[in-house]
Specification:
With about 280 residues, the chain is an alpha/beta fold. The protein has one domain: UDP-N-acetylmuramoyl-L-alanine:D-glutamate ligase. The chain is built from nine helices and 16 strands. The strands form three sheets. Strands 5-4-1-8-9-12-13-14-15-16 form a ten-stranded mixed beta sheet, with helices on both faces. Strands 3-2-6-7 form a four-stranded mixed beta sheet. Strands 10-11 form a two-stranded antiparallel ribbon. Helix 1 crosses helix 7, helix 7 packs antiparallel against helix 8 and helix 8 runs antiparallel to helix 9. The longest helix is centred in the C-terminal third of the chain and has 15 residues. The protein is globular. The chain starts with a strand and ends with a strand.
Length: about 280
């Protein structure tokens, strides 16, 4: 059985110093591989994409496409500015073989609205379904300039009702906690990441805030995907919600101290974060 399957478009991320592989499938699969032996990816990309170097030690199911999704990311004092050239291939339930459908964890990680919302309902009932929905919220103009807003996620209810856990950032909901609370009523677990402030998790009408360790940020790219992957793995194996959040906070905090894909978990990160002290938490109703 596949331990962890990530679904979404791999990307080519453009930086001033060159390009690197990116997208949720890249950060999440590499993170999962630090924890689990059998990790797989379902994606669409141009045939020239170097699968072996992009996904080392990971099983890849690729749909050939006329192009690979390309992102340009610029971080400014007022936030991230993105442009995108999206791959046109839609990932639908028909792409799932029986073995993929029965993966222990399936992580739906769209980057530019490329996953059919029907995917969530077409997996095994025993599968843990983790969702990072940011890509369903993105829209772009003819020049590729990206805008994002929670109201763009028009199929939210369809996905939330099947999800085992959902991770969004405070930026995804534009700081509006009423959106987060509404989504939380439609799913089992919803976690809102808050950067250096840690995260807030909603479950059964209660919430718990878990702080993050202080670090010197170098590059936040991929940190949300790394956080979500660690959280999904910890929850699926039976960790308590607060402890799963603490582990995910710790691993994600280490990731932002390094550039780009160097932020995926190292053996040192795992040792440091698996010896966490008792979690300070605040629960409310």
């Amino acid at each position: 059985m596949i331990d962890y399957l990530v679904i979404g478009h791999v990307t080519e991320d453009q930086w001033p110093e060159g390009s690197t592989p990116g997208g949720t499938v890249t950060y999440a699969s590499r993170t999962a591989r630090a924890f689990l032996p059998h990790v797989a990816v379902l994606t669409a990309a141009h045939a020239q994409l170097d699968i072996a170097s992009t996904f080392p030690g990971i099983e890849v199911y690729r749909l050939n496409a006329p192009s690979t999704t390309s992102f340009s990311n610029t971080y400014t004092s007022s936030g991230r500015v993105q442009t995108v050239s999206p791959c046109p291939v839609l990932l639908t339930p028909d792409c799932l073989s029986d073995s993929l459908r029965h993966s222990a964890i399936i992580h739906l990680g769209p980057v530019c609205n490329e996953i059919s919302p029907l995917m969530a309902a077409r997996v095994s009932a025993e599968t843990f379904v983790g969702v990072t929905p940011q890509g369903w919220m993105r829209r772009w103009d003819r020049q590729g300039h990206v805008t994002s807003h929670a109201t763009n996620w028009v199929d939210a209810g369809q996905v939330l009702s099947r999800a085992s856990a959902v991770v969004v950032s405070i930026d995804d909901v534009t700081g509006d906690w009423s959106i987060a609370r509404d989504w939380a009523t439609q799913t089992d677990i919803l976690v809102v990441t808050q950067g250096p402030l840690g995260c807030t998790a909603f479950r059964h009408g209660q919430l718990v805030h878990v702080p993050a360790p202080p670090v010197q940020e170098v590059d936040p790219t991929g940190a949300g995907d790394i956080f979500a992957t660690v959280l999904f793995i910890a929850l699926q194996r039976g960790d308590a919600l607060a402890q799963a959040c603490a582990l995910a906070n710790c691993i994600a905090a280490q990731s932002v101290t390094r550039l780009h894909l160097a932020g995926v978990p190292t053996a040192g990160d795992l040792r440091r974060c698996h010896t966490l002290p008792a979690v300070l938490q605040k629960e409310e109703t």
